[in-house]
Amino acid sequence: MIGRSRATPSGRSPEVVLTELLRDQQARFAELDTGLPPAVLPPPGDVVVVGDGPGGEAAGVVTQHSWPAGSAPLLWSAAEVTELHPVLGHSGRRGADRLLAEWPGRVPARVRAAADSAAVVTWPSRDVAAARAFLDHGLVPLAVLAVRRPGPLAGVLDRDPGLEVRPAGEDDLEGCVELAMHEIAYSSMVGGSVLRPDAEAVKRTALRERWARGEPIFLAERDGRLVGLLECGLTEATPGSWLAGLLPTGRWGYVNCASVLPGHRGRGVGHALVAAALPALQPPGVRGTYLYYNPPNPVSSVFWPRHGYRPLWTLWEVRPAAALR
Ligand SMILES: CC(C)(COP(=O)(O)OP(=O)(O)OC[C@H]1O[C@@H](n2cnc3c(N)ncnc32)[C@H](O)[C@@H]1OP(=O)(O)O)[C@@H](O)C(=O)NCCC(=O)NCCS
Hints:
Elements: H1 14-32, E1 46-50, E2 58-66, E3 80-87, H2 92-102, H3 109-113, E4 117-124, H4 128-136, E5 140-148, E6 163-167, H5 173-190, H6 199-212, E7 217-222, E8 225-237, E9 250-260, H7 269-281, E10 288-293, H8 300-306, E11 310-318
Helix pairs in contact: 2-4, 5-6
This protein binds coenzyme A.
The site of coenzyme A has 22 residues, from helix 5, strand 9, helix 7 and helix 8.
């Protein structure tokens, strides 16, 4: 189901153009990266069709959403988000460029006026032709969704004997919140995280919910002091779900938050946490593990690829949304 749409240059309905281009997009994604799931139709929204002729036409759907105060996504997202879901077919950089030029005109005045707003596109990391167009329109590669095939870590380093790594218990809640806040503070300098006044309370609730679901959380302790946190989960990319548009269907482990206390970084704490957590994140039959990191983060952008993760999707973003050009 696609929402509001307008006439297309070729006279075909926007829905027909989208469906035709989706077939080409599926072929293109398969050529670009065998790790991608088949391309799916965008969610309902404002359908945009640009260009004409074979190979010249591109389509997309523009959607908007507002995150309510106190909701967990506000820890990493702007409050008002306009999102473009391109269906480029084979139109490449030219199609992306035309679509991006059309986008600002489809952003509601409410979103354009909001300081706490963002324009976002999620696109296969290996499509460098589209990347050029995103850069030209003011978007930055603020995050990547990175994946790792199941399997043991290559080159597990000896752990410092004074370092203990263990699953967290509910008594550790405040220690986990403190460590998570260090991660948000760091990531707010190099990515999309926002250190909001209620961040601590929101994070406390999110951690409690994770415990209630029985998901794995690991802590590192040195001399009786908590020095590292790896907050993880297990999830299912079920056919038709939002996640199945990003990852092949099946079970996935993921890392939600990795944090080592300032002053203890670069000494193997993060590595020891990942080595301890991976078995729990890879039950039999799992498709792999995934996480998000920020390419401008000078530590995580090295740390995760060293542990076998590689970009699958890039989240291109500009804040505020009015800065889209
Ligand atoms: C990213 C982060 C979790 C990594 O944890 P860390 O404890 O600093 O990482 P490690 O010490 O295990 O690994 C970092 C480096 O130290 C090296 N290192 C030094 N001594 C080591 C030892 N005894 N054992 C293992 N690695 C050691 C590692 O080889 C690694 O080198 P590299 O950066 O060249 O790959 C941590 O730096 C952090 O909290 N950063 C701020 C918040 C953040 O960015 N979080 C991640 C968001 S996705």
